[in-house]
Design brief:
Blueprint lengths: L2 H13 L2 H8 L3 H15 L4 E4 L2 E4 L1 H28 L4 E7 L1 H4 L2 H12 L3 E7 L2 H9 L5 E5 L8 E10 L1 E5 L9 E3 L7 E5 L4 H13 L4 E6 L2 H9 L5 E3 L12 E7 L3 E9 L5 H12 L1 H6 L5
Parallel strand pairs: 3-4, 3-5, 8-12, 9-10
Antiparallel strand pairs: 1-2, 5-13, 6-13, 7-11, 7-12
Helix pairs in contact: 1-2, 1-3, 1-4, 2-3, 6-10
């Protein structure tokens, strides 16, 4: 039983004659007759009665046609999906990312990607760096977005996308807001709002202040940069933070200032040790295409 035979049978049943089937399939009448004859032999029961060189469908053929039609529709769906996958228009991507990138970077990337690839499903999980690495290792996600700092993990492939530098968030009326760049020694005595202990970024910032030789006064610790940004808006304190935080604050209430010495890290794509699928490669292209906008906003250098 061959696909072309199924198609000839469907065409005959749809158009009611060999002539109509031949025209619909754009082949000769003898070819249709041969296909129908072979198909009848392969099914093992009579599909047609023959009167005066005409084929008339049997009741069994009428019944069997519904099954053939479902099979043809299923095959066409397979063809459609295959073309869609080949053109990066179908598939699924599971993304795990640190909350700051879920709240900022990924929003525009996902929106633009979905506009171009509406049939690709996307799931996003916000998690810390350790959780993201675990999800990649256990195949619970396909792509991860986060910061590298001094990360070394033999089970994860890290593809740097851009470099970021920490900024100091402060209320617009703060005494240091008039400076474009602030030396960390000028921050002595300030109340700080910072990420919780254990965050890779918090660890990096703590190290810089240890080198400076003076302790910070931590007023509030929080798990996410979004919470920290809101607290700075409310004059709870200042924060040494990810520059993406500037996208979350009310610029009428908070300003972001560069720091010296600089605290730098890479924003990167994290994946397992495997070849990316075609649709994942397309998503990576959209991640890279968004970088100029992030650079213009001061989130990356």
């Amino acid at each position: 039983m061959k696909l072309r035979e199924l198609e000839s049978f469907n065409a005959f049943m749809t158009h009611g004659s060999v002539t109509g089937a031949a025209q619909a399939m754009n082949i000769s009448q003898p070819m249709v007759s041969r296909l129908l004859n072979n198909f009848e032999k392969s099914v093992g029961f009579e599909l047609f009665t023959r009167k005066r060189n005409q084929l008339i469908a049997t009741s069994e053929a009428q019944q069997f046609h519904a099954t053939v039609l479902r099979s043809l529709n299923a095959f066409r769906e397979v063809e459609t999906q295959a073309r869609a996958i080949a053109n990066d228009q179908l598939g699924a991507i599971r993304i795990a990312a640190q909350p700051i990138y879920v709240d900022t970077y990924l929003l525009d990337v996902v929106a633009k990607f979905k506009q171009a690839h509406p049939k690709v499903s996307i799931s996003i999980t916000d998690t810390g760096l350790e959780g993201m690495l675990d999800m990649i290792a256990t195949r619970q996600c396909d792509l991860g977005i986060g910061i590298t700092l001094d990360l070394q993990d033999p089970d994860v492939v890290i593809t740097p996308l851009a470099q970021s530098r920490a900024v100091c968030l402060m209320p617009v009326d703060h005494r240091l807001a008039k400076f474009e760049t602030i030396d960390i020694d000028l921050l002595r005595g300030e109340d700080f709002v910072e990420l919780s202990i254990g965050s890779p970024l918090r660890t990096k910032i703590d190290y810089i202040f240890q080198i400076a030789g003076w302790p910070r006064k931590i007023a509030v610790e929080a798990r996410t940069i979004r919470t920290i940004s809101r607290l700075v808006e409310r004059n709870v304190g200042i924060s040494v933070s990810d520059p993406f935080a500037a996208l979350l604050v009310d610029t009428n209430k908070v300003v972001a200032r560069t720091l010296t010495p600089t605290i730098e890290w890479d924003v990167a794509l994290f994946t397992a040790s495997r070849e990316l699928s075609a649709v994942e490669k397309r998503f990576l292209a959209f991640l890279r295409a968004e970088l100029p906008n992030l650079r213009a906003s001061g989130c990356i250098v």
